[in-house]
Amino acid sequence: MSDIQLVPLTQIVFNRFQQSDAKNEAKILEIASSINQHRDNGTKGLLQVPTARLLEGGKYELAFGHHRFMAFQIAAAADSFFSEMPLIVRELSDLEMFELMAIENFHRRDISPIEEAKTFHSYMETFGKTSVETAQKFEKTEEYVRASIRLLNLPENVQLMVTSGAMTKTDARDMLVLEKVGGADLVAKAVEALDDEDFDSPKEAISYALRQGSEWLDKNAAWFSASKNFPRKHLPALTAKDLEDIVHYADGYGEGKPINVIKDLLTLIASGMEITDEAFPQINPNDLERLRVLVNPIPCEKCPFHAVLDGYHYCGMPLCKDRKQFAWNKKTLESIASKVGVPMYRKEDGGYLGLSPYDEKDKKLWADGSPDLRLKEAKYQYNNFDGLNTTDLAVVVVGETFEKRKAAADKKNAKADATATSEREARDLIEKQRQLKITTILQFSWVVASPEFASMLDGITSLEVLKFMLAEINQNPDFPEGMDPDEVLKDLDCMKRADALKHMRRVLAYAMLEIYLIRNDLELSEDEKKIVMKHAKTLAQIADTWEVKLPKNFMTEAEAYQAELDSALKELEPQKAKK
Questions:
Q1: What is the mean pLDDT of residues 173-185?
Q2: What is the DSSP string of 233-283?
Q3: Rounded Cα distance, 186 and 209, in Å
Q4: Domains in the chain, number
């Protein structure tokens, strides 16, 4: 039963189920003007009287007509005629109040897609309605209702953009593609791109974020739509690292990754038992759904983490895609092996050796169908055996054929290793001999020759001049082993002036010999024998040119150094023979 009553504005309240408190000021003023113009039409200027119900306590709750009510409030401020508002008063349940409010809102042209989604969602949650019942009541399709409600999965800032008109409903649905494959993080990436004005439209920002946070899917791939015949036995085992990258705490259970339940999840997966939300309430339900899809892959088009944008397919779980590809490749290779009649290699086959399609003996083994042949996965075979038309399989041998080939290869390798060892030892010996010769020459030049040649510098009595000459000739001469050049020059500070001058002349004389003579003699040939004697004769010739008088025993000293060198070189020979 219903009746039109004039109700004081002070007794009217809004519908408790109203989804939005936003008001259209222009619309309200338009209604206020209209009721003034039609004030004598019998309903105080209203062309459509709102419906309401009487509450306990004397208040009247509007089912709809909130803008009309606010227009009356404006008009009443100027004219008491509008202090009361006509209402159709009916006995209405909460469900009827909600439905009247929603139907009225849906007839408005300016209703926001977010407000519409909130209305659907609230209707289902408050009154326990299904998406089918909701669609029937409001004359929509079930798919429309579900798609609308999914808009509420978008972050609050994106919902505000849709409500304000800054983003179209189409763009919002494209944002849902991001949310589907990559969650809130991917949506945030697109919003950030828009805020930074990197893109001219939401569409471009969404496409950019999608490319960054997901992987493109080839819908023509054999595994894309595979269902009943999908080779689950070939799926690689999930690891703790895989799970750590996927699962996170649910709201109210802390932050981060719940490492403590990873082991339980792996155990459950290994046993083949179902992963239920009830068993793991501390895990984000969306993450558990990802795990279920990983464990038992479904066709990509039916996957909740698959999305399509502009005709392109995208995967929000690259790990699932990789596992599918891996398993399907395994199946494909096994099919090829079955076709050519050669088994795939298994661990129990033991050792193996690869065959070459260019080797005549290997080609005969393949042509004869040796029972020791096996096929093994390969990254890429540029050529393959006759009838094996794939680049992903290599031919190997196991068993008796492998043992024979391995023994022959080991023998060949051992011979090659022995030759290499012998050559290396010969090179090492030559280098040791060379180092001995160098050391001996440097010692002879420093100990025997340099004190004699220093006499030609006796006329220089300035340490600074001597140091300057040393720097100009050779700042870092090669001293004999055990002598630190820095220490040799640093000792000058601890010497008396006469001793320092004598030492500096000797160092300079040595440097002059080292740069002009010693380095020439250090370019040694392997068969150089009497290197010290050769060096001593060269020094004697230079001494004549520089007018340096050498002692009579100079060559005798050289012979002693040569003898010492010969002895040291001889000691190396037995070591070579012994090895």
A1: 79
A2: GGSPPP-HHHHHTT--BPTTS-SS--GGGHHHHHHHHHHT----TTT-TTB
A3: 6
A4: 3
